[in-house]
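Sample entry (231 residues):
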Amino acid sequence: VGTFQMGSAEADSEAFPNERPRHQVAINQEFAISETEVTQAQYLAVMKENPSTFKDRDGWENRPVEGVSWLEAIEYCNQLSVKEGFPPCYKVQGEKVEWTLGLACRGYRLPTEAEWEYAARADEGTEYAGSNKADGVAWFGEDLETGSTHVVKAKEKKPNQWGLYDLSGNVWEWVWDSYADYKAGSQKDPVGPLLDGSFRVFRGGSWGVEAQSARVAIRGPAPPGNRFRVV
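Predicted structure, serialized as tokens:
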């Protein structure tokens, strides 16, 4: 629970237009978020399949799962809720997904875009999740032919101030929100526009992008059925 400045300032020369305008967001609803990205072992235990490109690498169990669409991420959340005795957060009919109870849902869910950035910034105000330099906290900038994901909580990379790993780099992360431009003015517990079938937001960068695309403010759109097979 707290308040932060979401997005990039006008003076930030590294920023893309869709990171502006910077605006104040109040997070009034408590939430919990995993300290790491969902691993291949975690996903396999729930979904009984592993779509990852790097499932044949050493330590695959503790590498983040990839090749998962937004719709499959929603289904993972629902199935994990059922497995652990919580009511599912989402009602799914084909590609139509309803989040009926919103932030009041007690089951597993994707973070909102605002929650993700709040968690990544962790009251630090740094350019990357845990540092103003990408090297110490993020896996990024690797060759697409020879690079790969990395084990979560790797000793080579530090978490941010709240103990969260890889919110910059390693793999892109889906959030709940439909993609839209930011609006000016302060907001409270935003959940994004409700646009059925629209593009969804992914955040955080990956091992195959440059440092600029692993910044906390970076955001991008993709169809909900899209899978990022490599980066």
